[in-house]
Amino acid sequence: MKNRILLFAAALLVACTATHEPLVGTWKLVEYKSIVDGEVAWTIPGNAEGEQLKSWSGEYFLFVGKFISDGTTTPNYGSGTYTLNGNQYTEHIAFHISEDYTGSDERLLMEFKGDTLIQINPVNVDWSYDKNNYRMEKYVRVK
């Protein structure tokens, strides 16, 4: 009986932590696309060049980067807490370069393909998104 309780406790611990496991670590942005009215409206690389890193721990996320477009350099950064349930991801943004995002909750869909991560937003309350109007960020794991 004692072994069954220990086995159950270990399985519960693994189940509680496993949902974050594919995400924990540092990822580098390799592609960004903004789709507006079904057309690609803006891309990185393309309309801008630069780089961004995004990191996750078991509870927190942060990102930092800079982009250059038409000779203007624009920094990008933010941080907060997150939850991940399957492919449903929510960020609570504690601070952001754009104060409009500070204090907000953002829903994203996540897709993992090996060492590649794809984020889609904005996402509706029912976890659907408008396939004609969305943003996609593609990251690769930093080794």
- What is the fold named in CATH at topology level? Lipocalin
Q: What is the number of independent domains?
A: 1
Helix proportion range? 10-25%
Distance between the termini: 42 Å
Overall mean pLDDT stands at 89
CATH C-level name: Mainly Beta
Helices and strands, in order, run as HEEEEEEEEE
Number of strands: 9
Task: Please identify the structural class as seen in this structure.
Answer: mainly beta
Radius of gyration, whole Å: 17 Å
Largest sheet: 8 strands, antiparallel, barrel
Return residue spans where pLDDT drops below 50 for at least 5 consecutive residues: 1-18
- β-strand percent reads over 45%
Per CATH, the architecture is: Beta Barrel
Number of helices: 1
Q: In what order do the strands lie side by side in the largest sheet?
A: 1-3-4-5-6-7-8-9
Structure description:
With 143 residues, the chain is mainly β. The protein has a single domain (2-141), classed as Lipocalin (Beta Barrel). Helix content is 12%, strand content 57%. It is built from one helix and nine strands. It has one helix at 2-18, and strands at 25-36, 39-44, 49-56, 60-69, 72-85, 88-96, 105-113, 116-121, 134-141. It has an eight-stranded antiparallel beta barrel with strand order 1-3-4-5-6-7-8-9. A hairpin with a 2-residue loop joins strand 7 (105-113) and strand 8 (116-121). The longest helix is centred in the N-terminal third of the chain and has 17 residues, at 2-18. It is globular. The N and C termini lie far apart (42 Å). Keywords: Signal. Residues 1-20 form the signal peptide. It comes from Draconibacterium orientale. This is Lipocalin-like domain-containing protein.
